[in-house]
Amino acid sequence: MAASLLLVFVLTIEEFGTPATLGAQSGYFVLVTGIHERFSDWPLDIPGASVLSLLLVILAMAAFYFQHWLVTRRSYISVTGKPSAIEQIELGRLKWPVFMLFMLVAFISVAVPILAVLATALSSTLSGGLSWSNLSLRHFEALFNNRAGALQALSTSLGLATGAALLTGILGALIGYLVVRAQVKGHKLLDFLSLLPNAMPGIVVAVGLILAWNQTHWPIQVYNTSSMLLLAYTCLLLPYPVRYASASFRQMSENLEAAARVCGAGFVQMFIRVLLPALSPALIVAMLLVFAIASRELVASLMVAPAGLTTVSTFVFGQFEQGSPGLGMAMSVVAIFSTTFLLLVLTLLGRRRLSGEY
Length: 358
Prior knowledge:
- By secondary structure, the chain is mainly α.
- It folds into three domains: 1-74, no CATH class; 104-136, no CATH class; 148-358, Orthogonal Bundle (MetI-like fold).
- It has helices at 2-13, 17-23, 31-40, 46-72, 95-122, 138-144, 150-182, 187-199, 202-213, 226-237, 239-251, 255-262, 267-294, 299-304, 312-321, 325-357.
- It starts with a helix and ends with a helix.
- It is a multi-pass membrane protein.
- Residues 154-346 form the ABC transmembrane type-1 domain.
């Protein structure tokens, strides 16, 4: 329980969308919004943003360290070595109170926000309130008529998310092989670096990318291009394919590679024709997860996107700030249901893979 609370603390302290949308209007600022303000408002305060980023990294890393310490300091094993049967404990009279409490929490945390988004997207005017006469599809019509560049934002997010999924999938497969199978010198450091973005707040990664690539000595100019946003998504989401690929490689027998080499296959042929088919179910699930997260990513999109490039998340954020919540909520509905569909596909693929294994 303590470890899970520390994990919630880390995810909360690096959360950007909620304090930027709700807190800024009431004058309530946190570390992440302070970093964004120093990078977005003139005059730019890069040293101040760097100091706040370091402070945020220290807090996040300290919480992750204590979380890891709490999880790993004790281990429990079966004394007999035999698996014990799972015994369900009946709640008795507490069954319905527990069920109602769960439904209440689910209704407040999930149903109410989604219903509010739907109500705003389907309302002709905010002042009209919730009434049949105020129901309208004009915000969706404006969305698909490309008002304020909505279709470009949608296509940009889908394209960047697809690119990030493919790039992280390729890198994740190669890194997983190097860490688990090749055992090259420094493989532990490589494994640590591939997982580091999970412990780093997203806004800190974005600040680091800006400071690293906003230099004139680079032979290729990545800063202020769409490639910068693709690089940010890749850095933030690479841990997912790496973990999935590493877990799959650990479950594969090394005899597969030995048999391929005996039959005369080189590394590339062995990797593509032997390992990749066995790895593909887990890798596809990881790539779908990357696609779903990248298609709605906000903090990196706001920080490193070049001028004139809009994604789904920045479009919604901009419409909310400009006083056009209806159009922004219509885009949110499209993003919510598309992401939900992808997560359902991911779940079905994961269950099919598990059923195939057992």
